[in-house]
Amino acid sequence: MGAPPGKRARVRVAGYEAHAPRTNIGKLSYGYDEARDLYDVEHQGDFSVPDEAMAPYLCETLELTVSELAAWDWNEVVIHLGWREGKALAAWVEAQVQ
Length: 98
Prior knowledge:
Blueprint: H1 7-19, H2 32-43, H3 54-62, H4 66-71, H5 74-97
């Protein structure tokens, strides 16, 4: 059974907002949608992983061994992947604003 629709996107936004750079008054330097638009312009859209490379990609991205990944259900993978993606976008934005 897969994750509910939109869960990965919601977790991605939460991961971004938890790690994104802030102004001196605590507001986000860029909201998630604005940051995503800037990233897409620079990187020409989303990165796509071929099916045959998905397990190695997930192991590397989530810092798991193959046996650890196999023990997770898909819902757990989606949540952690969304968080990592949001955190990575926040790191990219921080590098751009410095």
